[in-house]
Input
Amino acid sequence: MYFTELPDHSRPGFDEGLHFSKFKKYNVVFNAESNNGHCDSHVGCLSLKIVLAGEEWYGVGSRQVAVRPNQFLVLNNDQTYSCRIVKGKTARVQSVFFKKEFAATVFQDTIHNEKYSLDHPFDPAEKMPEFFQTLHSIEPELQMQMTQLITALDRNGYDKCMVDEHLVFLLRYLIGIRQTDLRQVNNVSALKSNTRTEIYKRLCIARDILHSSFMDNPDLNLLSSMSCLSVPQLIRQFKCVFNTTPHQYLNQVKLKHAAELLTSTDNPIQQITWQCGFEDMSAFCRSFKAVYLVQPTAFRKQAVL
Output
């Protein structure tokens, strides 16, 4: 199914049960613009969340994660979550919901070799892929796959066979990202596999907070509390896995966002300074030049040329 509008859960007569029942029967694609979308609680199927413009917030457990342009989030099957677009702020969003049986079949095909698939072509698939529910950067391959899917839907309308074919390759790509995460788990400094996995999940929570709330300058105590890691363990393991410390990572996020604002808006440098969580403009300019080798004003002029 293909939707170009987000459901209005506050609309009189809106049948929430009927709406969500569709997600158990079909693969569902959303491509919509909204300035007030929200869902207070939903137990979802495996889904991909992308924001092309603006931002959308997801509540997962006790944390709030902001999905912004050039990032995506995967939520697992049967995950309870909330979502909202801040009222009055327009966001362009894309979501793909994978029907459980479809996702399990693709996962089975991915994890087994061709000989096994040849000998067991119709075996029932029950095991679902479980993803690390954390923000990832959108790489060109994912961008291309989503563009091709949406273009085909807008041009030809919804066709189940066409959509399912696109979604097989899209889900295989996401499973590849999952395999990359699993390899990264091995960078955690711990002996037991289960311990490494749990620490990695908690480090991802800390990293997502840095991405979601960078303008508020989240400190180590907050990251420690939200990720349930002591401050020393957080710093040490974050460095092992991401090759940088939380503070250094935060600075990278802030400067990257500043660079995007410099090229996509005409906001004054002073405004960009506080939008990105820097204390004063001189500190921002020094940090920016240390990474991009030019002052913010020069960077903006270069981007225009």
Observations:
- The two ends are 43 Å apart (CA to CA).
- The chain has a mean pLDDT of 91.
